[in-house]
Amino acid sequence: MNKGIGIIVLTVFMTLAGCAADQNNTESDPLDPKNRRPEMESNTNSPSRDQLGFVRYTQDEFEQNNQSEPKAIHVDRNEMADMITRILLQNPDFKEVATLVTDEEALIAFEASNNISKQEAIKNAEKTALSILPGYYTIHASDDKSLIQNIETLHYSVMEDDDLDIDPLVQTIVDSMKKDD
């Protein structure tokens, strides 16, 4: 009987000692918000840096960072146009695609195969752009092959002349695209 009580007491003692060790553990729990390590968040040399995008601020940190001047939201228009074009060209029904992204509009001209209807191709192009661009963008798409050249010409015109007013030129292309709607 004494052996049985001794084993029970020993088991209880070991369990309590194990729990006490857990409570005294000096390692911080990485998921505990009190144990954030900002130096890890900004490690740009990490090979896993491109796998996840993560930012976390408290209201106080956010207000402290924005005291001087709020950051402007930046959209890389070339990157957006490239993504839209590449995604569309993954669909075998699209043979050629030209995409122009301005500060508030996306213009997509393409040549499609005969395997897809004009309306379906336009719908696919618009949905692709919608999935990539911020929601405030207006998206226009057309299967008029001549507009591919017009978009390219507009792009190179802007590259040659920074002071060029592109609004009327973009509007001309948009008006042509609206004929397809």
What would you say this structure looks like, in words?
The protein has 181 residues and is mainly alpha-helical. It folds into two domains: 2-65, no CATH class; 77-178, 2-Layer Sandwich (Alpha-Beta Plaits), CATH 3.30.70. The chain contains seven helices and three strands. The protein has helices spanning 2-23, 38-41, 59-65, 77-89, 118-132, 146-160, 167-178, and strands spanning 94-101, 105-112, 138-142. It has a three-stranded mixed sheet, with helices on both faces. Helix 6 (146-160) packs antiparallel against helix 7. The model has no long low-confidence stretch (mean pLDDT 80).
- What's the structural domain tally? 2
Average pLDDT, rounded to a whole number, is 80
**SSE arrangement, N to C:** HHHHEEHEHH
- Give the CATH class of the largest domain: Alpha Beta
Helicity level: 40-55%
Rg over C-alpha atoms, rounded to the nearest angstrom: 29 Å
Indicate the CATH architecture of the largest domain: 2-Layer Sandwich
Number of strands: 3
The N- to C-terminal Cα distance equals 91 Å
Largest sheet entry: 3 strands, mixed
CATH topology of the largest domain: Alpha-Beta Plaits
Separate helix tally: 7
Low-confidence stretches: none
| Lateral strand order in the biggest sheet | 1-2-3
The gross shape turns out to be: elongated
* Content of β-strand: 5-15%
- Helix/strand-derived category reads mainly alpha
